[in-house]
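Intended use. Records such as the LuxR family transcriptional regulator entry shown here are meant for training and evaluating sequence-to-structure methods. They are not intended to support clinical decisions.
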Amino acid sequence: MSLIKVLVADDHPLFRAAVLHALRDGGAVGEMLEVASVSALTEAVAEHADVDLVLLDLTMPGAHGFSSLVWLRGERPELPVIIISSNDNPRVIRRAQQFGAVGFIPKSAPVESIGAAVSAVMEGDTCFPPLAAVRSEHDAMLASRLARLTPQQIRVLLCMADGLLNKQIAHVLGLAENTVKVHVTAVLKKLECNSRTQAAVLLKTLEAEWEPELPRAAP
C-alpha cells in the first residue's frame, strides 16, 4: 500500500497524539493532519483535496452526533471515514455504519488496532466490531433524505438546528440572505419537513444515542 494522507479529527490532544504515533509506527502514512473542531474540519477538507482518509470523533465542538459524518459523505462521498469514539454502544456502531462510515474504532481498543483498521480500509475493506444492534429503518430513511442535500444545504441545516435566523446563517456562511432562503426552502422540501422546527427535530435524531420513542400503551 502506497503512503497515504490522513486527517485526524478529535478534540482531545493526547488522543490525537496517540493516533498519530500509532499511524507513524505503521509506516503506511506519509502525511497527517489534525483538527479539533467541526469548523477546522471543514476548512481542512476544503484546503486538502488530496486527503485519503478521515478518522473522526463524534463529540467535537460544533458536532451534532453524526452530523459531521453526514456532511463528509455529502462533501466528499469518495473519502472513507472511520469513526473513533469512546461510545462503543452497539447501536452507535450500527448507526455509524448506516450513515456511511467504513469503520469504527472504540477508543478503548489497543492503539495497534488503529493501524490495522487503516490498512484494512485502504485495501477496500471495512472494520467494524461485531454488531449486535439491528438495522434501523428510521436511520435508513434519514440517511436517504440527507443524501438528497448538497453540502451547502447541509451547512444551512446545521445552522437551522442551532436556531439561527436566515440573516445570521448568511453571515456565518458568507452567503446572500436570499440565497439562504432558497436553501432553506430546498432543505425543507428534500427532508419532507413542514417547518424549520420539524427539520431541527429531525436533525436531533443524529445524536449518537438517539432512540425512537416507543408507542405508549393504551390506558
